[in-house]
Amino acid sequence: MITIEPGWAGGKADAVTQTVGMPLERVAPEAVGVPVRSLDALLGRVRSRHLNLHSLLIIRHGRLVAELYWQPYGPDTLHRMYSVSKSFAGVAIGFCVDAGMIRLDDKIISYFGELVPDDVHPWTAAMTVEHLLTMSTAHGFSTYKQTEDTDLVRTYFTVPPTRPPGRLFAYDTSASVVLSALIERVTGRSMTAFLQEQLWTPLGCEHPLRAMKTPTGLPRDHAGSSPWWREVEDNPAGVDHAGSGILCTPRDLARFALFCLAGGRVDGRQLLSAEYVRAATSRRVGTGPRLGADPYDDPGYGYQFWRTPYYGFACQGMGGQLALVHPDDDLVVVTTADDQLTGDANDTLSRAVWDELLPKLTDPDSAADDHETGRFFGQLPAVLPYDDTDSDRLRWVEQVDRSVEFEPNTLGLRALDIASGPDAGRLKLITDRGDLDFCFGLGRWQSITFGEYGYPALAIGWWDSADRLRLSFRIHGNYLGSVEMILVFAPDGSITVQMIKAAEAFLEHYQGIATSRPADSPPMND
Questions:
Q1: Distance between CA atoms of 319 and 15, rounded to whole angstroms?
Q2: Rounded mean pLDDT, 431-452
Q3: Residues 28, 372: contact at Cβ < 8 Å?
Q4: Pick from 170, 245, 269, 506: most CB atoms within 10 A?
Q5: Is the predicted pLDDT of residue 80 greater than 70, yes or no?
Q6: Does 392-515 match 78-248 at the fold level?
Q7: Is the peptide bond before 72 cis (omega within 30 degrees of 0)?
Q8: How many CA atoms does the CB half-sphere of 483 hold within 13 Å?
Q9: What is the rounded distance in angstroms from the CA atom of residue 236 to the CA atom of residue 5?
Q10: What is the pLDDT of residue 373?
Q11: 120: Cβ contacts below 8 Å, ≥ 6 apart
């Protein structure tokens, strides 16, 4: 059991008691003061937005009241955490500080002498470890995106700074990468190996941490059409990509959040100093100015942690990776998802928790009926990207079999073959980069391998009118992303194709519009 005194995170709650380690006890929601109706409201709100949710875990008073997964994800799936990785780096630095390996006021260049140019800018030379932790550095955004150097760490010292450190907040993923390199330099191990020993094992985590690597030492064209700074699955010369490249299970992320909620204590042992955890999860810098008067604006930032409304803090990653922690209410909510297309998944999920769950929590009811507990545990079908109450989406067109050719276009699309029956279909794209085949289920998800990348994916098709076929592809694994395709069938026999991609640093060829020649017509430029 983990106990921490009230008030450490700026709240007003009674002492927080948490159990860390697995298995976490499942209980009826009301047994820990979580109304079933509030869980239903939260899930209903998520469903109404068709969010591509992968997991949802809700823990109160150290016990699970919900643990849901959406296919193909499950409790043992290592999930790409994107910028949640930064919070892992923040805690790993804390272990180094506690051990006396580094100090927060150390100048960061003192650890990277061979990478620092002789004429280093004074603002770069002035940056401390704490500046990187709080993202109040001398840089306005990630340095590796401003150069063609595949050594992401070196770019931090060679790219010209834009302001003195310590004055302004600027979200800077390259700072987290440098922190990972710092951990490796002072410990002699990768950040994930160090955290495995210091935290993951004591927490009783079921699966080892994994990390994507930086592309240090690789040729500039290593990523093909993707940016040279893209992280890679393995590279002995690289460091763990602590900016966006850590993978773990949602359960283990929940354990990590509980550890932070408990102020660094596990089973009566103070693994990480409460002072550091308090500093890391408190507001160290403001994140404004921001437009508008929204009370959720400018929550503040700690040591690679975000502050949130209602005296909370959070780990946040692109597309719906979240660990929301509310000490006042002894509550942890973890989500994983991939909703990069809308760009507001984190906001939608957070506000659903703050509106539907947080204000409706009650005192525990020891006599709570557990007959509904099972509804909030298990695996559900993957979320459909459309309203499944409209059966016409599957009936408008029973069969299509068409082949068309294209003039030069931004998609590099030369020709297209589409064949679709009552429950499945096949799309063949003849492109400048080769022939690509895509299978899809009609009104149902089908597992496929996506295009030239070879990544695992789910694919579905549906008709949203009698002449418009929609295709949705959701890529999973080490890289998350999605592609939406719209095929419009015109009366003259031509097809207009629109592709929209939502992914960081890949799928570049799947963005644009092309219209084929009408049936039995000469080329448009003849």
A1: 33
A2: 96
A3: yes
A4: 245
A5: yes
A6: no
A7: yes
A8: 23
A9: 43
A10: 76
A11: 109, 157
Q: One-letter amino acid identity for 160? A: P
pLDDT of residue 388: 74
Closest CA to 458 of 384, 514, 510: 384
Closest CA relative to residue 258, chosen from 363, 347, 334, 310: 334
Give the whole-angstrom CA distance, residue 267 versus residue 62.
13
Kind of pairing, strands 413-420 and 424-431?
antiparallel
Amino acid at 405: E
Q: Cα dihedral sign for 363, 365, 371, 374?
A: positive
Q: Contact at 8 Å (CB) between 445 and 475?
A: no
In the chain, domain spans: 78-248, 392-515
Tokens linked to 180: 């990972």
CATH number for region 78-248: 3.40.710.10
Strands 377-380 and 63-70 turn out to be parallel
Tokens coding 186: 């002072």
Of the candidates 68, 3, 20, 4, the residue with the CA atom closest to the CA atom of residue 378: 68
Distances from the Cα of 139 to the Cα of 52, 153, 289, 307, angstroms: 33, 13, 17, 22
CA-based Rg of the chain, rounded to a whole angstrom? 25
Strand-pair category, 377-380 with 481-489 = unpaired
Q: For residue 179, give the nearest of 212, 136, 120, 133 by alpha carbon.
A: 133
Q: Which CATH superfamily is domain 392-515 in?
A: Calycin beta-barrel core domain (2.40.128.20)
- Give pTM, 2 decimals: 0.92
**197 phi and psi angles, rounded to 5 deg:** -75, -45
Two structure tokens written together for 28: 């009826």
Report how far Cα 215 is from the mean position of its chain's Cα atoms. 20
Considering only CA atoms, which of 447, 385, 472, 332 is closest in space to residue 16? Answer: 332
pLDDT score for 98: 98
Token look-up 């017509």 returns: 521
DSSP label at 396? S
Strand spans (E) along 181-320: 210-211, 246-248, 265-266, 269-270, 306-308, 312-317
Contacts (Cβ under 8 Å, ≥6 apart) of 180? 89, 92, 190, 191, 239, 240, 241, 242, 243
Closest residue by Cα to residue 426 from 410, 403, 407? 403
